Amino acid sequence: MQINPQARVNILIVEDHALLIEGIKNLLGNFPQYHVVGEVEDGLDVYRACQTHHPDLVLLDLGLPGMDGIDIIRQLRKRWPDLLIVVITANAAEHKASDALQAGAQGYVLKKSSQQILLAALQTVLLGKEFIDPALNESQVRKQTDHGENTVLTSRERQVLKLIAEGCRNRDVAEHLSISLKTVETHRLNLMRKLDAHNSTELVGWAQRIGLIE
Question: Residues in domain HTH luxR-type (predicted)?
Fold first, then answer.
């Protein structure tokens, strides 16, 4: 999707660090065409926020509590195919940028980069083009990568695994995802079977290995 870069652009910021949120808002406040319509700190709240605020563009951190950033991108793109998504993250791994772009993001910016890089990313995606932070090796990002560990799990199983790795008990997971305790227990058993994990510590290790937590 291409948006006239001179037109008003409604932006939703998805980030769990208050200082970074304020920094982005202060930066965008210098440009009349950018209008921040909302802020979200938990991955599980992003979908609802998009329903409420109807953003044109989402600035998305990948390392959110509650739900993995790549899964959020897939969920949003499935519901709103024309929504623009720019990832802003500390993760400088080329394969993570590749995963984000393949999931449907149009831009990938590192938090350590300058404000000018972020502004360039916004302008680029508004013109309908992809933007990859120049600090990354673009040829590596463009390579199609196949991470078998990511494809073995369903989206719901990845959500459950992420919450378990964040220290949530089964009852907490059920509450976060609005599902029954029995369903959580079933997902947990399936995760242990699929990943050949025998306890919570090994599940946490898998969550780290496939990038659900840092």
Answer: 146-211
Q: Looking at residue 167, which CATH number applies to its domain?
A: 1.10.10.10
Q: What is the pTM of this model?
A: 0.70
User: Is there a domain that residue 172 lies in?
Assistant: yes
Task: Indicate whether 30 and 128 sit together in one domain.
Answer: yes
Counting the structural domains of the chain, the total is 2
Note whether 109 and 181 are same-domain residues. no
**Alpha-carbon span 133 to 107, nearest angstrom:** 8
Q: For the segment 182-194, what is each residue's pLDDT rounded down to a tens digit?
A: 999 999 998 988 8
Q: Range of 23's domain?
A: 9-142
Domain shared by 125 and 196, yes or no:
no
Q: Nearest CA to 80 among 107, 62, 60, 55? A: 55
